[in-house]
Amino acid sequence: MELPFAESWKIKMVEPLRKSTREEREQWIKEADYNLFQLKSDQVYIDCLTDSGTGAMSDRQWAAMMMGDESYAGSSSFFMLKDTICRITGFEYVIPTHQGRAAENVLFSHLVTAGAIVPGNSHFDTTKGHIESRKAFAVDCTVDEAKDTQLEVPFKGNVDPAKLEKVLAENAEKVPFIIVTITNNTAGGQPVSMQNLREVRAIADKYGKRVIYDSARFVENAYFIRTREEGYGEKTIKEICKEMFSYADGMTMSSKKDGLVNMGGFIATRHEDWYEGAKRFCIPFEGYLTYGGMNGRDMAALAVGLDENTELDNIETRIRQVQYLAARLDEFGIPYQRPVGGHAIFVDADKVLDQIPKEEFPAQTLAIELYLEAGIRGCEIGYILADRDPVTRENRFGGLDLLRLCIARRVYTNNHMDVIAVALKNVFDRRHEITRGVKIVWETELMRHFTVKLERL
Ligand SMILES: *Cc1c(COP(=O)(O)O)cnc(C)c1O
Question: What integer is the mean pLDDT of 197-216?
Answer without folding.
Answer: 98
